[in-house]
Amino acid sequence: MTTKTVGIALVASLAFAGTVQAQELFVGILNDNTGPTALVGAEMAAAKQDTLDWINANGGINGKKIQYEAVDYAYKAPAAIAAYKKWMSRGVPPIAVLGYGTADTEALSNFINQDKVIYLSHSFSAKLTDPAGKSGAVERPTPYNFFHGPSYSDGCRAVVTWAMEDWKSKGNKGKPKFAFTGDNHPFANSPRAACLKHAEEIGFEIVPAIQYSMRPGDFKAQCITLRETGAEYTYLGNTGDSNVAMLRSCASVGVKTRFMTNIYGYSEIEMKAAGDAANGVVIPLHIKWWNADVSGAKLLHKISKGVQRSTFYTASVCSVMYLKEAMEWADKNGGITAENVRKGMYQKKDWVPAGLEGLCAPATWTAEDHRNVTQISVSEGIINGDKYSWRVLREVNIGREARWWGQ
Amino acid sequence: MAALVPRPSGDFRTSYIADKAIFPSRNSAIICVLGILVLMAAPPFLSPYQLSLGIYIGIYAIAALGLNILTGFSGQISLGHSAFFGLGAFGSTYLSNRHGMPVPLSIFCSGLIATFIGLFVGIPAARIKGIYLAIATLASQFLLEDFFSRASWFTGGAAGAFAKPYSIFGYQLSGDRLYSYVVLIHLIVLFLFATNVLRSRTGRALVAIRDHYLSAEIMGINLTGYRVLAFGISTFYAGVAGALMAHFTGFVSAESINILLSIQFFAMIIIGGLGSVMGSILGAIFIVLLPETLEFVVHAFRATGWPVVAQIGSSLDFIKEASIGLVIILFLIVEPRGLAHRWQYIKAYWKLYPFAH
Questions:
Q1: What residues in A contact B320, CB-CB < 8 Å?
Q2: Mean pLDDT by 10 residues, chain B (357 residues)
Q3: C-alpha angle B156/B258/A278, rounded to 5°?
Q4: Whose CA, among A4, A115, A292, B328, lies 20 to 30 Å from A257?
Q5: ipTM more than 0.90?
Q6: What residues of B are in contact with residue A106 (Cβ under 8 Å)?
Q7: Could you say which of B49, B250, B320 has the minimum Cβ distance to residue A17?
Q8: Mutate to test the interface with B, among A2, A138, A215 (most CBs of B within 10 A)
Q9: What is the distance in angstroms between the Cα of B44 and the nearest Cα belonging to chain A?
């Protein structure tokens, strides 16, 4: 019986794929709600859906509603490919896919170039910033990949730049020690070489790397090693739960170092989970937080219907709103096709989506360079009992140095 | 079908020729050939979604067959199968990108690379077995995973590696439609090869070792040799499957090669049927289509707009993921001997219709 039942369900599912009705404007969404990065993924999933709902409720794209379908792919590349192929089998394929992380962005990079579909994700790999192959540092250009924010490498360079100034401003002499920690995993490794090179160039002494797993565990052994290296500044290369475990372990063995991390390594969620151990962690922000005193926060609150959200949420809202404006431009200039939306992304310089002023860092995409944000707010999280807030330590302009492009 | 499906008791052969036949009857041979012809004719009528699922099934079936030869036929457990899958994927990409090797050849050679490393990993199998071997192969999984992350010259490191499209005699066979033929042909050739190996002296030796290694040794079977050979064959299949996957997606990342994939291969052969060539395909079909079916169910449920949908909210995704596990558990309770066994029941049902089995 089991075989029969499953068989019937399968036939039904396959038949369904071919009969999806033609929609005017369709966008596919890939989320990780249940996979290993769900801590970050669930916030972004909510943000993407809330933003599209808000757009549709407020006039859509010049009156056209965006149809969307969200799939939880649990950070499994084959599931992402299956979802993508399902969308491409529709009567009207998607104009854009709102992707999520490294796993789906990489797995689909080849297909989206062939099919010419805009891929807006939250994977900030420096390899995705060269749309025309001009940097000389990437193996294959990625003209359809977009993200809003500095690359992981540029983010790490920014916090390291801040760290050196922090060291000097305290009147310290000599070379400060810098430790790059993280799993031997593509995500953690992405900025490693670039960041270490920059740190060395600006005068850090690099201590041996420390490896801690992407899967949370007890990292006291790593923390003791870290303590013994005497590193004054430590970069955490992992995300969410893993960083929480690392921060807690290090607090318990009394490591005295200033922790810095990537955009997905720290937010209000990690502050809450790690408590005081996560106080003062420094990250490169290209967006502002929930209760920031900026005019754009009003729209953020409307989109989230008043539910307080993390910086992950804001980041996702910003990127979807950029896409919205590019679609509006495309609609007025020859119709909403992936090619026109792509052109739409290139129309303005240093722009912020209407209504989100102050919330999203100004961005510029060009047909030759997808490094979009150069102004990075190096910020620290402040934990005061059960209150979580942020403070900008320094605005770092990372620029667009040719030698850093694509790396 | 000497080795395609386990034979029920009472179904015996009276001659060696009958025993070694690939197909148990003329009808099954005809059905098999017709099935292949239907699959050959199908791609032009299928959507990219259906084709991509078909490609996944094909690729996973090849890898699962490899694992089945090792686990189902020679009784050795490997928890490192996906590492060899990854080795094939990176190997073929490396050979075709860096050394300009034509992709069809690089797929084959990457299988050989995987075999070479697989034979090496298989050496402990001479001394250890059962759960100890599982741990030894688990170690090889982690070693290779770490290697993939570090060896930038081979894998591209954190950036991953782009794989060239499949082309033969100057014709590019990329895209779901054309590539499905590439996978289908590999599938047919590798399944025929496995069936032939398993009905030969080698195959019988492997089964003898699985069933009672002491008796096998007393009969003069070289335990070490055959055990290591089983690793070699198994890793060749994993390597070729990995290479096929690389040239399908066009990109390989160390991130996608993990222990979960190894366990998935394991699930395929257990669900499909241990010691069954046919079961390897059925298991791959099951594992690929189950999440898609549940995704379809969830999607249909969401589309109803019932108030309960809003109440459940995003927990629906968790329910879906948990259901995959639940279905597998239920399935193993209802059909512990795998889909291949169920398939025999279904065949018997039609053969004896209208009388019950």
A1: 34, 72
A2: 58 79 81 91 91 94 96 92 95 93 94 94 82 90 90 84 87 87 95 91 92 92 92 96 93 86 92 90 93 87 82 79 85 86 83 75
A3: 85
A4: A292
A5: no
A6: 160, 251, 253, 255
A7: B49
A8: A2
A9: 13
Q: How confident is the model at residue A3 (pLDDT cuts 50, 70, 90)?
A: very low
Q: Which helix (H) or strand (E) holds A260?
A: strand A258-261
Q: Cα(B111)–Cα(B245) distance, rounded to whole angstroms?
A: 13
For A29, phi then psi, to 5°, come to: -125, 130
The shortest C-alpha distance from B160 to chain A (Å) reads 8
- What is the b/e burial string over A352-376, where b = at least 16 CB atoms within 10 angstroms of the residue's CB? bbeebeebbbebbbeeebbbbbbbb
Which amino acid is present at A124? F
In terms of C-beta density within 10 A (0-12 exposed, 13-18 middle, 19 or more buried), how is residue B255 classed? Answer: buried
Question: Per residue in B288-329, pLDDT tens?
Answer: 999 889 888 888 888 887 888 877 777 888 888 888 888 888
Pick from B47, B156, B251: which is nearest to A89 by CB?
Answer: B47
Which residues are A178's β-sheet partners? A206, A233
Total Cβ atoms within 10 A of residue A332: 11
Tokens of A380: 């620290």
DSSP string across A332-384: HTT-S-HHHHHHHHTS-SSB--TT-TTTB--B---SS------EEEEEEEEEE
Identify the sign of the CA torsion B148, B152, B154, B155.
positive
**Which of B45, B47, B49 to mutate against chain A (most A CBs within 10 Å)?**
B49
Query: For A14, which residue in chain B has the nearest alpha carbon?
Result: B50
User: Cα–Cα distance between A59 and B101 in angstroms, integer?
Assistant: 54
Report the Cα–Cα distance between both ends of chain A, in Å, rounded: 55
pTM for this entry: 0.85
Q: Check A184 against B48: CB less than 8 A apart.
A: no
Is the separation of the CB atoms in B82 and B64 below 8 Å? no
**Cβ partners under 8 Å of residue A174, min gap 6:** none
| pLDDT tens sequence across A179-228 | 999 998 888 988 999 999 999 999 999 999 999 998 889 999 999 999 99
| C-alpha–C-alpha distance, residues B100 and B104, integer Å | 12
Contacts of A10 (CB under 8 A, 6+ apart): B289, B292, B293
Instruction: Locate A305 and state its tokens.
Output: 């219907």
Contact B179, B248 (CB under 8 A): yes
Kindly state whether A102 is in contact with chain B, defined as any CB-CB distance less than 8 angstroms: yes
CB contact under 8 A, B255 and A71: no
Pick from A391, A365, A398: nearest CA to A147: A365
What is the distance between the alpha carbons of residues B282 and B5, in angstroms, rounded to a whole number?
11
In this structure, which long-range contacts are made by residues B57-60, counting pairs with CB atoms below 8 Å and at least 24 apart in sequence? B57/B281, B57/B284, B57/B285, B57/B288, B57/B289, B58/B180, B58/B183, B58/B184, B58/B186, B58/B187, B58/B244, B58/B284, B59/B183, B59/B241, B59/B244, B59/B245, B59/B248, B60/B241, B60/B264, B60/B265, B60/B268, B60/B284, B60/B287, B60/B288
H-run or E-run covering A205: strand A205-206
- Beta bridge partner(s), residue A64: A61
User: Both tokens of residue B204?
Assistant: 């019988």
Question: Which residues, at least 6 apart from B284, have a Cβ–Cβ distance to it below 8 Å?
Answer: B56, B57, B58, B60, B61, B64, B268, B272
A169-A172-A177-A180 Cα dihedral, nearest 10 degrees: -20
